[in-house]
Write a structure and sequence with these properties.
1% strand, L-amino acid transmembrane transporter activity, Amino acid/polyamine transporter I, membrane, Amino acid transporter transmembrane domain-containing protein, AA_transpt_TM, mainly alpha
Amino acid sequence: MAYDEKKEIEPLPKTDVATGDVEDVVYDPKATDDDFEVFKQTTDGVQFRVVGWVRASVIFLKNFAIVQGNFRNTHGHCHSIADMAEVVGGPILKEIVGGLFIIAYVLCTGSGIIGLSTGINALSDHAACTVWFSFLSACFVIAAASVRKFEKIGWLTWAGFISVYIAVFIVVIGVTTRDRPAAAPQTGPFELGYHAIAYPTFIAGMTATCTIFVSSAGTSAFLPVISEMRNPRDYNKAVYVCMAIVQASYLTFALIVYKWCGAYVANPSLGSAGPTLKKVAYGVGLIGLCVSGCLYLHVAAKYVFVRILRNSAHLQKNSLVHWGTWFSCTIILGALAFILAEAIPIFSYLIALTGSICFAPLAIMLPAYLWLHDHWDYKSGMGALKMVVWYAHWFVILLGAFTCVAGTYGVIMNIKLAYANGMIGGAFSCADNSNTHG
């Protein structure tokens, strides 16, 4: 049965917004028909759909929900958030969102390259020019990302997640054993800089907001994973497990480090417990830092790969065209990530720019509109609650637009000031620009 856009296949069970209960739905057997998916179950080609929900959870842990997943499983021909944008806004919106998607994950790959090069720098006591460490890191990331299927990368994500988790845990314990933060003045009085209510400048406030926002904004990277799951309907289960672990860990670890370091949290934070534990943490977390960049690059490359070969027999065929296209995607996008990482070498600014210019539209505005598209009946629905939910989603879209414009302005101004104040030595500089705090 070919997919027919005029006749939707039985959707996932809808969640009642008032109670959170999932409605019971008797599914049409055709809902699992292979034609509904981007990658087909095959015995004579490349079998992509081999990822179980447990491994998907770990992949999501390293990428970091539900609205996008439900929309995708209702419109199973969607491989990425750009395909979803086409459903709700046509081909022009698809290309805009597709461009933002690639930019977002190339920038995220760049931040992964900076993180990995910072770790190598710390372990080697800056034994070589930082640019060379960044180039070496980019090579590692590209090589790991070139593994073709999420199922194989899934094994890397286990090692990556465990290594980063242990590394952060070492730092969390380490900061509590010091009399004062490693980045604080080591003699005389000092202030941790706590404020119940702070009054930052608009530029500083928007940059900080975008930096924090990125930590949970990468949900658009979940979507290509669904296409490689054995049972795409297990997506919600995987996300709930992932988000429970992520939110509990973020809250616990962040509060402890901030309590002991205040304004002197290093950036990246693995350097917050002093030079010795910094080396220990980076040594333990090096695999995870590589895998993080690898996943971001893999997601971006897989999007381009599918766009190029989607209607071709080479999509799931071990041909020269198939492999040549795949390696071209990872190498070219990885090279772009390396160039951008060296052009904007301060880790926090690269993260913030990703949040404002890319993830504000992708993770705030578009998911809200996806929900509106599938719940248009709420506009004239019975009951005040449905009307409140309807207009709340429009408010979210406006909030995303504000974050995009104001956040991008704030980050650009901060980057300009950083160059003017000498915080950034220049593009492709040998200086280690990652060890900032604030």
